[in-house]
Amino acid sequence: MNFGRGPSVVLNVGGTRYSFSREVLKDFPLRRVSRLHGCLSEQDVLEVCDDYDRERNEYFFDRHSEAFGFIMLYVRHGHLRFVPHMCELSFYNEMIYWGLEGSHLDYCCQRRLDDRMSETCTYYSAEEPPGEAAGGPGGKGRRAPGAEGGKWLERMRRTFEEPTSSVAAQVLATVSILFVIVSMVVLCASTLPEWRAPENRSVEEQSRYTAESVREPSGIIEAICIGWFTAECIVRFIVSKNKCEFVRRPLNIIDLLAITPYYISVLMTVFTGENSQLQRAGVTLRVLRMMRIFWVIKLARHFIGLQTLGLTLKRCYREMVMLLVFICVAMAIFSALSQLLENGLDLGTKNKDYASIPAACWWVIISMTTVGYGDMCPITVPGRILGGICVVSGIVLLALPITFIYHSFVQCYHELKFRSARYGRSLSAEFLN
């Protein structure tokens, strides 16, 4: 901590005092409290808290003391629950002030918050964008050596990671979306017979990246898109805080899966030339080129809807596994019974579509999901009765985990909406300035 004296500091929250050492504040779980460690002047301190007593080295926050007591219990024990007899929305407002989100609540309280927010259609926005350094854009205090370089890297990271954080981020996100759309249009158009007919090339030749194919309009457009995505990925890797975490992120893995097939195909063409080895690799190259469809998922960086879907799947993996278990158990039971009733019993009417249990599994899955392609159906009376039971059971089994997934989806959407609103505040300020 670069401001104040004494080995410890005192937090006064609504009249209740808490004493901490300076080193504890550095990595404090509450973002607003941890920002005190980097304050350089009294003006920086007053941007974080409501008042400051220099003699006592005491920081005053005009907030709900009882709510902060429950938040401190979360800091110490890792469980965050609502204060009894306190409005859920008021407590959630306190959480946002101190830097917490709905995901920090215990599951039972998350459901209460989801229900309350759905009833009132309430949206909160924090008072300042998260990640803003102490003595942020509005601060006028002196900066520590190297602070400007760190601030520049943080701006670059937010520009590439948060599309609503600034005007430059908005422009960059728009350009990235245009490149994704153009690349998808070229990929879809390249599969049309009218597109390939004038070229008069074989299937294997179409999968190669030769000098002639690169000079074609589609090859030029594809090379430009790949160059943009590659440069974007490299810059985001350079400005990232944690390189290992950057590589492990799902969206970054998708970026690599979308970019690397192009370079692999080019390298295979360079090293193998026009010999038969490349001809035999034609199928592999076509598969690699088709992996460009993953570029569509890159839109998740710019649309809250896709981000909500991914975050919901991440948090509801237990419910998804439970749903798959339900389906697998039902498939095993109904496929065995349908094969026995339609083909296994010697009743003089054998249905060849149900010759085996694996073949009957296809009928079970399309029946449980109420798709019903009609390519195979039971012809015996017991088989049709079993089919009706299978359809009803599928509806019930699929509906059981939906409630849990729905609540998680609402929670994820609210969290991402709040974060977008916080960054939108900095964007509005940039327009005004």
UniProtKB/TrEMBL annotation:
Signal peptide: none annotated. The keyword Transmembrane applies. Keywords: Cell membrane, Cytoplasm, Ion channel, Ion transport, Membrane, Potassium, Potassium channel, Potassium transport, Transmembrane, Transmembrane helix, Transport, Voltage-gated channel. The keyword Transmembrane applies. Its main location: membrane. It comes from the Eukaryota. Residues 126-147 are annotated as: Disordered. InterPro entries: BTB/POZ_dom, Ion_trans_dom, K_chnl_volt-dep_Kv, K_chnl_volt-dep_Kv5/Kv9, SKP1/BTB/POZ_sf, T1-type_BTB, VG_K_chnl, Volt_channel_dom_sf. GO terms for cellular component: cytoplasm; voltage-gated potassium channel complex. GO terms for molecular function: delayed rectifier potassium channel activity; potassium channel regulator activity. GO terms for biological process: action potential; protein homooligomerization; regulation of potassium ion transport. It is found in: Cell membrane; Cytoplasm. Pfam families: BTB_2, Ion_trans. Residues 7-116 form the BTB domain. The chain crosses the membrane at residues 167-192, 219-239, 251-273, 293-313, 320-341, 353-373, 385-409. It is a multi-pass membrane protein. PANTHER family: POTASSIUM VOLTAGE-GATED CHANNEL SUBFAMILY G MEMBER 3, VOLTAGE-GATED POTASSIUM CHANNEL. Heterotetramer with KCNB1. Does not form homomultimers. Belongs to the potassium channel family. G (TC 1.A.1.2) subfamily. Kv6.3/KCNG3 sub-subfamily. This is Voltage-gated potassium channel regulatory subunit KCNG3. The gene is Kcng3.
